[in-house]
Specification:
The chain has eleven helices and twelve strands. The protein has about 325 residues and is of the alpha+beta class. The chain has a single domain, classed as Jelly Rolls (Sandwich), CATH 2.60.120. The strands form three sheets. A six-stranded antiparallel beta sheet has the order 1-8-5-10-3-2. A three-stranded antiparallel beta sheet has the order 4-11-12. A three-stranded antiparallel beta sheet has the order 7-6-9, with no helix packed on it. Strand 11 and strand 12 form a beta hairpin. Helix 1 crosses helix 2.
Length: about 325
């Protein structure tokens, strides 16, 4: 194995499993960026377009776009004239009445639901694949003990039927108004119990809003299994960046408590705005699609031994700068 492959393998394990001091050093991410130069060099034209005068290998964050003349660009369903654009869209008129209703809900409340989008055969097969790969050591949880990152890289079923499902990608591209690029998948066997957050803090775009996510139930979900919860309409709240809470970030390091402090701030916003919390008691094969800024969470597991088998997929839109606001690093998109 070549030296750069060994280093990349080490860094991948570092980002997924290790939680110590090295993970907080921005230079570690810069090294990883340099090792992925072929993928990040594609960002040069975008940086020039958006007026970012720094290396594509350097840390990057929301503060780099403050004075950008393109900062008001947005996906078409986030623009003030979105309702007129939607109702006058020829492609929208060709969707079924049921799907049109869900798309309207996505615009209005920040999410939509596709009932039994995946068949029981597909979901059962994926569950068997996950179990087999965990048992054989071909897949494993990250440092949270809950998330299996990028199963699609080693499972054709996860990649072709779920992550890169043509029908799903066509719908997501319609919602963002641009072709979507599959970025990352997460598989769960238990509920995440993660506090309320927006994906936009972890997978950020310039212009804002050009990320979208799907959550697929791989089994029936009940109240005791720690179901997914979300806050309708929260996608219209201002984006929260690391400048909106005490992240602890410095020029050279990432704050050790940045995520906790961010989630504390989100908890405050939910209370300040009096946001409604809804719980998604999904059936196997159901899919929830959410806006990049929709607040969502994993509720507490109250039934001992309960599973919550699910798969989350994240997609960026093409021709947007993609980065991770919390860790200030550019996103490395698959080729």
């Amino acid at each position: 194995m070549a030296l750069n492959e060994l280093i990349m393998s080490f860094l991948q394990r570092l980002f997924q499993q290790y939680t110590g001091f090295l993970r907080s050093l921005k230079v570690v991410y810069v090294i990883n960026n340099l090792l992925n130069a072929g993928k990040l060099l594609r960002n040069r034209a975008l940086y020039q377009h958006f007026g970012v005068s720094k290396s594509v290998f350097s840390p990057i964050g929301f503060s780099d776009f403050k004075d950008n003349p393109h900062s008001d660009e947005a996906p078409w369903l986030d623009r003030p004239e979105r309702l007129a654009l939607l109702e006058g869209n020829e492609a929208f008129s060709r969707f079924s009445p049921e799907l049109q209703q869900e798309i309207r809900r996505f615009e209005r409340e920040g999410y939509m639901i596709l009932r039994q989008f995946f068949s029981p055969g597909d979901t059962d097969q994926l569950n068997s694949t996950v179990d087999g790969m965990l048992e054989s050591g071909k897949a494993g949880y990250n440092f949270t003990g809950r998330k299996i990152f990028n199963l699609w890289e080693t499972s054709e079923l996860a990649r072709d039927r779920f992550f890169r499902n043509p029908e799903m990608m066509k719908l997501l591209s319609f919602l963002l108004g641009r072709r979507v690029i599959p970025f990352q998948s997460l598989n769960f066997t238990r509920g995440s119990e993660q506090r309320a957050h927006s994906d936009a803090i972890h997978m950020t775009t310039q212009p804002q809003g050009f990320l979208i996510a799907t959550w697929t139930a791989l089994e029936d979900i009940d109240e005791g299994s720690g179901p997914l919860a979300y806050y309708p309409g929260s996608h219209r709240l201002p984006f929260v960046s690391t400048e909106d809470y005490h992240s602890g970030n410095s020029r050279f390091t990432i704050g050790s408590d940045s995520n906790r402090r961010y989630e504390d701030r989100i908890e405050e916003i939910i209370a300040e705005k009096g946001l409604e919390k809804r719980v998604f008691l999904a059936k196997k094969g159901d899919v929830l699609i959410w806006h990049s800024n929709l607040l969502h969470a994993g509720t507490r597991i109250t039934r001992e031994g309960a599973t919550r088998r699910s798969m989350v997929c994240h997609y960026y839109a093409e021709n947007a700068i993609c980065y991770h606001e919390m860790s200030q690093r550019p996103a490395i998109l698959p080729v």
